[in-house]
Specification:
The chain has 345 residues and is α/β, with parallel strands linked by helices. It has 2 domains: 129 residues, Rossmann fold, CATH 3.40.50.720; 188 residues, Rossmann fold, CATH 3.40.50. Helix content is 34%, strand content 15%. The chain is globular and about 60 Å long. Bound molecules: nicotinamide-adenine-dinucleotide. Nicotinamide-adenine-dinucleotide binds next to helix 4 and helix 6.
């Protein structure tokens, strides 16, 4: 039986993976994968990792030397993997779609909550404070919402927005001709949107797509939603925009420096990240701890697809969900697999 090191394990991971596992011995570690913890994978054939694990070149080299052959990401995003360093050493597989609905619905839930100030209203009524001052929101209907990234999650988000009778503007590096949406330039999206929601991956091109310059182009009173990756937003620029009133509200499921913090309980600790502390303290900001994926359906799909990915590798089959630096954006995947019969290398 193959042994798999499972990093950054949470109770719900164990529950859903144990339900579908028949073929592997999982070694569950609560630690995140890093240069300091990679040695835990000694004696293991594969690794299962998540969004805040660091699969950097030194970690890849350590795993390779330990005889690990595959890193199965139990996520769609893989910006935390140095895919170039992994090439020819470790096969990297992922779960490309486990429930785009889960993330799109969470993004919309955050948007509705920040607009109608549900977070404020909830704490008020728990304290028997039934006043409404300061809770004025706006109608969604008729507002213009700009969606950056129209892949699986972005498309569902657009459909939800249309259900609210909103005008949708979209930007994508690769516009989808089959999608009934008004694609515009990034600048036009910034200039015309009342709300901007991010659904693109974190890449060199998209890093800090929301920055001082782009915020300057936006409408006064814009609301920003980010359920994609923290690095898409330059946090200090966001904070300045919120403080000077240019940005009406921000709803964030991800944060640039989340890796050391998210998924853990620091309620008895003084957080040293001043930007995060300030963001959390603002009344017009809601932060959730990267929980967009956290539905029963998504967890079940993540476990099942990860198991299939491992089975494909150990049965010497075609790796359906493999990625490498040559096919990173997913578009060249067929070509890459085709050239190499069934795997990226
Ligand atoms: P996807 O691959 O289906 O879609 C991504 C879209 O972004 C594609 O249409 C692609 O063409 C577009 N894109 C790529 N580069 C771009 C650029 N420079 N500018 C604009 N668009 C660009 O991915 P998805 O399943 O819709 O997921 C989107 C992102 O959501 C993931 O990359 C991940 O970071 C994030 N995510 C978050 C959670 C969560 O729990 N919060 C869960 C899953 C995914």
């Amino acid at each position: 039986m193959k042994t798999i090191a499972f990093f950054d394990t949470k109770p719900y991971d164990k529950e859903y993976f144990n339900q579908v596992n028949q073929n592997y011995k999982f070694k569950y570690f609560e630690s995140k994968l890093s240069e300091n913890t990679a040695q835990l994978a000694k004696g293991c054939d594969g690794v299962v990792a998540f969004v805040n694990d660091s699969i950097t070149a030194p970690v890849i080299n350590q795993l390779h030397e330990l005889g690990v052959k595959i890193v199965a990401m139990r996520s769609a995003g893989y910006n935390n993997v140095d895919v170039k360093a992994a090439f020819q050493k470790l096969h990297i597989v992922r779960v490309p779609a486990y429930s785009p609905n889960a993330v799109a619905e969470h993004a919309f839930a955050l948007l509705l909550a920040i607009n109608r100030k549900i977070h404020k209203a909830y704490t008020r009524t728990r304290d028997f404070n039934f006043s409404l001052s300061g809770l004025v929101g706006f109608d969604m209907a008729g507002k213009t919402i700009g969606v950056i990234g129209t892949g699986k999650i972005g498309q569902i988000f657009i459909n939800i927005a249309k259900g609210f009778s909103m005008n949708v503007l979209a930007y994508d590096l690769y516009p989808n001709k089959n999608l009934d949406v008004n694609y515009v330039s990034l600048d036009e999206l910034f200039e015309k949107s009342d709300i901007i929601s991010l659904h693109c991956p974190l890449t060199e091109e998209t890093k800090h797509v929301i920055n001082e310059e782009s915020i300057a182009k936006m409408k006064k009173g814009v609301t920003i939603v980010n359920t994609s990756r923290g690095g898409l937003i330059e946090s200090n620029a966001l904070l300045n925009g919120l403080k000077n009133g240019k940005i009406r509200g921000a709803a964030l499921d991800v944060y640039e420096e989340e890796a050391e913090l998210f998924f853990e309980d620091f309620s008895n600790t003084i957080i040293k990240d001043d930007v995060l502390a300030l963001l959390v303290s603002l009344p017009n900001v809601i932060i959730t701890s990267h929980q967009g994926f956290l539905t029963e359906e998504a967890l079940s799909n993540i476990a099942q697809t990860t198991m299939n990915n491992l089975d494909e590798y150990f049965n010497d089959d075609k790796l359906t969900n493999e990625i490498c630096y040559q096919c990173m954006d997913g578009r060249a995947a067929y070509e890459c697999h085709h050239q190499n019969k069934k795997r990226c290398f």
